[in-house]
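note to self: the first set is below, dont mix up w the second
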Amino acid sequence: MKINIIKIINLPVSITNNEFHTTNFCVSPTGYYFLDSVNRQVAYLSNNGGIIFAGGYGIDNDAFIDPIEILNSKLRVWIIDRTENKLIEFDHKLNYLRTIEFDQIYPEFSGIDDWGNILLQSKQEQKILKANPPIQNFDDFIDLSMWNGLTSCITDFHVAFDGTLGILSVCNNSVNLFNRLGKLEKIFPIENTDGRFLIKLSDKWFVISTEGQITSIRHNEKVNLLIEQPILDVAQMNSILYILLLDKIWVVDVSME
C-alpha cells in the first residue's frame, strides 16, 4: 500500500475554537461542510476561505435537535436529525430549503451516493431504508435481521460513491459489503479491531483507526499515518481520502502497489 500526502489544510479559528466542536464532515467540489452535533450547528468553509454557519438551538426551520450526520450531493446538503426523524435540506451555501419527515425509526447511521440516493440504518427496526431523488419517502431496502446481531455491533456504515454499501462490525470483526441493489456480496474478516471508520476509495475498501492506521480489507495490508491528533472523521471525493483532525484536514492519496 502506498500513501501520498497531497496537502494539509489548516482550518480557520472559527471552526476550531471552543464554541464549535466538529464531530462530522463531508467534502464537495465547492468546499467543506462541518457538523457540531453537540451545539447543533453546521459550518461551510468554501474553497476561497469564506465561512457560513447555520443551525443551532431554537425553533427556526434550520434548527435541529439530535443531528447525527451531514451529507452532501449535487449542491445540496442534508442534516439527519435522529430524535425528530427528519432530514433538513440546505443549498450548498447553507440556505434552508425544506424539511422531510420519515417514520419513527431513529436512525443510527446514514449515507449518500453520487446519484443522491440517501440510506438510513435503524438499529431499532433492524433495517436499512432508502430514498431516491427527489427525496420524498424512505422505503425498506435491506433487512438486517437476517444476520444475527449485526445491528447491535455496527461501528461504521459507509455508502460509497457508486451506491455500494459497507458495514463495519465489531462483534465478528468483519466488513459486510452489499451491492447497490442491497444484496450481500462479501464478508471480509479483519484483524484491526481498533478500526473506527470504513471508506471506499476507487474500487478498494479500507478501515481506518482514530490513531491513523489504514487497513486494506481485501489484502489485509496496513500502513500508519504519522499524525499527532486523533482522527475525527474521514471522507472522500474523486477517490482521494480526506482526514479530519482537530485543526487540520489531511488530503491523502491511497493506492495499492
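second set (the one i keep forgetting abt)
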Amino acid sequence: YPLLGEFEFCHYPSPRQLKRGELFRDAVVPINGPLGQELFAFAEKTGLPFEIHYEIEDLLLPPLEEMLGRYPRAKVIWCHLAQIRYSSRSSVYGPAYVRGLLEKYPNLYIDVAFGNGFSKYPGSNEYHARVWSGDSVKKEWVELIVQLPWRFLAAFDLGGDRQDQLPEYNTNLRKFLNQIPEPAREILAYKAAWKLLFGDELP
C-alpha cells in the first residue's frame, strides 16, 4: 500500500529526529476522543482501511480495544508489530496478547515495519524491534504469523526524508520474510494487503 500514511495517535520522536534534536513530534491524541471517533466512523462508512501509529504501552491498550469494539467495521492497520520503545511501560503486549486481539477483533491488522534486531531507540537506549533476537525472528512471533497470516502486512515505513534508503529497507524486510515459512510468507509479503485493500484474493 504505497504512500498510505499513518494517523499518529501516540508517536514519540523518531530515532532520526532524536539524533537531530527535533522533539516536536511527541504526538499524543486520545484514540477514543473526538478525532479518533470521527476517523473510525469515517472508516466504517467508507470501508477504507487506515493506518495508526500507536505506541505499545499498557495504558494505551484499553482505549484501542474500546475503539475496535465500538467500530467493528473500521479496518485498522496498527503499524510496527512489537515495536516497544520503553519496556518499563509495556508489560502486557506479546504474542499471546496480540493473538487474543486478532481473534477478538477481526477488523484489526498489523504491519511488520520495524528496524533490524540491532536497532536501538535513542530515547531509551533499548532494542525496540522486539520480534528479533539478534538476526533471528523469535519463534513465538513466527508461529503467530504462520497461524494468522492474513492479518499481517509487509511494509517499509519509508518516510519522505529517507526515500534514498529503499534498498536498505527492502533488505531488512526480506531478511524478516525469509524466516517466515510458506505459504504464510507469500501471504504476508503481498497477498494480505491486496485482499484488505481491494477485496479479492490473489491466486
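remember for set 2: The chain has a mean pLDDT of 95.
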